Amino acid sequence: MVRTWTLTVAAALVSACATAQISGGPESPVRLDTLAAVGWEPDGPFTLEFVVYNATGHRLELVEPKGEALQVKVYRLSDGQLACKTPSPSRQSAEGWEVRNIRNASGLKVSVDVWPYCRSLPEGTYRYEAIYSANRGNSGTPFTGLVGPQGGQIVIQKGISHDEGALQAVLAMVASPPAAPAAPTEGAAAPVAPEKAASGEQAVAHPAAQPQPAAAQPPAQPAVNPEAIRACVDKELAARSLNAYGDPQGTRYDGGPPVDEGGRVLYVASRNPAIRAVCRIPGF
Q: Do residues 67 and 50 touch, judged by C-beta distance below 8 A?
């Protein structure tokens, strides 16, 4: 749901945010868009890209975002514990030339490399969250406040940053790990050792217990086919009259597209639950 404000209400919010911060969740009129899944090489860089998105229904003044205005926290998926984090977002006044007028349904891109703070992370799977502090400009009335938290999942593995299919496959395995091998049936007859059979020693047969119904096994996960998923996503986007990134047709992106082609499917999936479900995109 997109909330539409009048210019008067929007201006009142901007002035109020000097003392009251807001959270920019997925339904917020100003939000932090993140990639649902990211692949990192073990030797870095550990780069994350974000879009500070204007969904107010009107033009909005935003200070050009900088990496130091973001804080990223990375958690281990195995136990949920914090693995590393960047410093708290800085709060400072920006010069007037750093304030941008952003159209509705558009945004500003910002990226951050967390390698200096997370370089000790071993290969594996993680979850990340980010918050962004929209700083005040020293002229005009730009939006200020805290946006987020928003995040996604991370896989650290050699070659994963260039292989979207492998990234989706790893996350699918995390979501549905293989079942453990079944234990032997209790009471089954024990096999006779070959050396005992050869010596003529009489084997004692133990009666087998009544067979127990096999435990229901989870269905096997279908093989991930990146090309089929991409074709499904493009078909659903066209059916909904959305552009290649899941936004309304005609959406303009200041600074270029929000993500490259390699991460486009996961970007669409993170922001369009219906398409994600129809196309069975793994990792969510």
A: no
Cα 234 from Cα 275, distance rounded (Å): 10
**For residues 193 and 41, which has the higher predicted lDDT (pLDDT)?**
41
Q: Are 51 and 105 in contact (CB under 8 A)?
A: no
Q: Which fold has domain 7-167?
A: Immunoglobulin-like (2.60.40)
Beta-sheet strands, E only, within 6-162: 30-34, 37-40, 47-54, 60-63, 70-76, 82-85, 99-102, 106-113, 124-134, 145-156
- In this predicted model, what pLDDT tens digit does every residue of 92-105 receive, in sequence order? 776 767 888 889 88
Q: Is 35:259 a contact under the CB 8 Å cutoff?
A: yes
CA dihedral 146, 147, 150, 156 (to 10 degrees): -70
Please give the average per-residue pLDDT across 83-100, as a whole number.
Answer: 82
Alpha helices in the chain (DSSP H): 7-16, 115-118, 164-175, 194-199, 226-239, 264-271, 273-278
pLDDT of residue 4: 21
Q: Which two tokens stand for residue 25?
A: 């969740």
Bond prior to 181 in cis (omega within 30° of 0): no
Residue 45: which pLDDT band, with cuts at 50, 70 and 90? very high
Look up tokens 């084997």; give the residue: 203
- Location of structure tokens 């309304």: 248
Q: Which of 28, 33, 26, 45 is nearest to 110 (CA)?
A: 33
pLDDT (mean) for 179-206: 50
Q: What is the DSSP letter of 19?
A: T
Angle at CA 36, nearest 5°, toward 179 and 223?
Answer: 40
CA–centroid distance for 215 within its chain:
34
Q: Do the Cβ atoms of 107 and 52 come closer than 8 Å?
A: yes
Could you report the per-residue pLDDT of 244-256, keeping only the tens digit for each? 888 888 888 777 7
Among 141, 147, 154, which Cα is nearest to 69's?
A: 147
